[in-house]
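Anyone? Bumping this.
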Amino acid sequence: MPPAIELLQGTVDVLILRTLAWEPMHGYAISRWIRERSDGVLTIEGAALYQALHRLERKRWVAPSWGVSDNNRRAKFYQLTVDGRRQLRAETTSWRTYADAVTRVLAPA
Amino acid sequence: MSPNADRSRRFFRFPWRSPTRIREDVDDELRFHLDMRTAELVAGGMSEVAARREATREFGDVEFTRRYCRRLDEGNERRTRRGEWLTDARQDLAQSLRVLRRSPGFLAIALITIALGVGANSAIFTVVRGVLLRPLPFDHPERLVSVYENNVSEHAARSQLAAADYVDYRRDQSTLTDIGIVGYTGLAYQGSSDPVALRGLRFSANVFSILGVRPMLGRTFAPDEDKPGKTAVVVLSYATWRGVFGGDSGVVGRTVQMSGTPTVIIGVMPPGFTFGGDEQFWAPFDMQWQLDDVNRSRKFHNMVGVARLRTGATLAGAQSDLLTIAHRNERAFPASNTGHLVNVVALHSAFVGDSRPALLVLAAAALCVLLIACANLANLLFSRTLARQRELAVRVALGAGRGRLVRQLLTESLVLAGLGGMAGSAIGWAGTRALLSVAPDALPPVSKVSVDPIVVAFALAVSLGSGVLFGLVPAWTGARTDAERTLRETSRAVAGRRADRLRRLLVAGQTALTLVLLVGAGLLVRSLDRLQHVALGFDPANVLVTEIALTSNAYDTRPRIARFYESLFERLRAAPQVRVVGATTTVPLRGSWTSGLHIEGEPVPNGPLPSIGYSAVNDDYFRALSIPLRRGRGFIPQDAPGISPRAVVLNDEAVRRFWAGRDPIGARLQLGPDPKGPPYVVVGIVGDVRQDGFDAQPRPIAYTSYRQEGQSYMILLTKTTGDPLGLLATFRAAVREIDRTLPITGVTTMEQVAGNSLARRRFSMLLLSIFAAVSLVLAVVGTYGVMAYTVSARTPELGVRIALGATTSNVLGLVVRQSMTTSALGIGIGVIAAVLLAKAIRGLLYGVEPTDVTTFIAVIMLLLGASILAAFVPARRATHIDPIEALRRD
């Protein structure tokens, strides 16, 4: 397994939005989903994850609701809002542009 | 979950979260994460303890995150609440406007009602603020006081001080920083054109510094500039500087001719500076000549003190401080000072004087109008709420909470109040202007009445306050709607007994307040009526009033004064429209001068001499005003300067008071402060006149001949054949022919003098009558509204009665009787309140008792009649009920 990479704040935000595009999830599920989806390359520190979630909630990009987790515990679920979905699209586009540019620069001549 | 959950959230809102709840939520969320991760690690083979340690390590700073999230959530919560509140308010506002637009009739009535209530209050507030609340334009005006003499024997608490007494007060007091004195004066300014008469005040040199004011240009008086032998100086008012001297700043330091004396203009005061009147200049008050004259130093009263309280001193303290000195002087100088005490009052109250009680009564009356308007609106909204119960029930059924419904209904009231308030402010503004134009003389000159932001803010606050007041009760009742029952029931008779009782109480309250206002207005109307029919004792018709002061040195002897006036009388008499030329020092209704009286042969009293009104007149004065000669003769040309004894004519009241039935003709007496002064002999008796105003009983007066007295300031009363003011040009020409330098002032007519002296009363009477009339209309509308609703709610019942054979008059009686019980209750309460409150306006009444039976009966009849009328229309409708139709509806 390659070593985990610590993520920058802006990156955390867009990854969370992307994760929630599937379905509403609680914070723990989000962190697992990102870890699994990146084959363990990307891990988000719990502190950074929850700070980001509450920030996104404040920005109205995600909407919270209390539900019951798989193991029957009270858990806070987050769901992408219309604004959040729009934001995700915009950030995804700019991420792609950025990543392509970086890739091109780094590519062996 | 639905993809649109965030939108649905707006409809099915989560309840607001408290800070405690937010903390619990954050804790739960983080604990859940750590628990899940621990469980995962345990499942991977770690021990429980190690797993938890690892989960916590991975997580990072838990404490910081907890605090961070909590703070974010709290801010978020606040923003959400604000946002929701605004959204709701916008919704409510839009909804209110929609609802109100649907019922234009209701809207119009409601707006007019609020506008009247708010308008009355903002107009009165404008005046009250201008007169009573605006601080005087001086430094720390609340520390300034006026010092009057309290003349105990004459019941005159605001008399003028004598010079020597003032000197004692100033020297011996310990509560005031300093005392200055103020007196009246006048000057004639001889410029390039016609002479200009200027009214002014004499100030002791320290008055400007006591007031704490600075001149706009130049300087005020130097410390000893009020001593004898100094160059004559004046300080000009801003208006005079602009109007008479063309606003030329070079005028300061210039020497000009004032009443024949070279006078230096030393300064100009800033605009807005006035000492309680419309004075045009200030000159130094030299009182040395009074102090030097033993007969005047404590007996000649011609000044009012103005002083500033020392730090820590109070008005009461200053009063007792000066009173100690007054009592000491009373013992030391019994002949002059017995019964002459001292009265210290706040300067503001000295300026505003007696307009205060009337204004407070009017403010209270305006408040009554507002309360009545509120009661009316509460009733109106009540009916509407009841009529809208189905609509409200539907909303409750759809999930609107009671608070939400109260808010919606309150918003409607506030929208009404806001709109009405705007209209009311306009009415108030127009009303204020109308008031000022109707009665320019009714307010003290110091007051500055204008509509400013504070007045507008007041009107707004009153509107919104009343919006809450009249909106809250119906809103609350409306919100108590029992949705299920209302929707199930087809009848609209859901009013409920409690609501009905409340509405009747509102109407009764309105009736009571209206009765109080009507009684107040009625009493004032009757007072004014009594006053207008008072026998004045003279005929004010066709009399021109003009004042001429011989202030210059050319008129320094009695024969010279007499020569001027006699030749003026002569010239005037030659004019065809002149019938009689009278002249006096004191015009009837405008007050009197007083003098000591000593009758020869009677012992000189230990205390002060008895006082008698004093007036110097010309030979034709009594004829000019048609004052009847009772006995003896009036003045004749043989009453010349230098002849002793001088002639005196008494009025009836003087004979009654001092001769008690004996014949005074030929009696010898002394006038003035000195019982050994020049002798007078009584030559005639004339009828009484109202010298001190419509409402003051005639006082004893001694008339003397102006020629023998040497009075140089005469007011001419010229009786004409036609419009007295038409004589003015002729009059000016006659004066100019004799002396070009003399200004003519105080031009008016006797009828205007009479009108002005009633101006203040007429002002109060007019306003209170308007308020009472508005209240009456509102009360009638209120009664009508309630009865109309009652009849429509009772339609089925009345239908049954008619079906069972009730006659038209039965039904009429039934409905009217129901209305009458409410009105009777209101009238009962109102009569009790009016009896208690009427005493408060005793000071504004004349010749009428506060519990005047005639007024009360008239008002009660009026109110009963009005309420019968208001009930009659709905009652008539009740008689036309078709029983079959009525029963089918139920």
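Late reply, but here is one note on the structure posted above: Residues 1-13, 490-495 of chain B have pLDDT under 50 and may be disordered.
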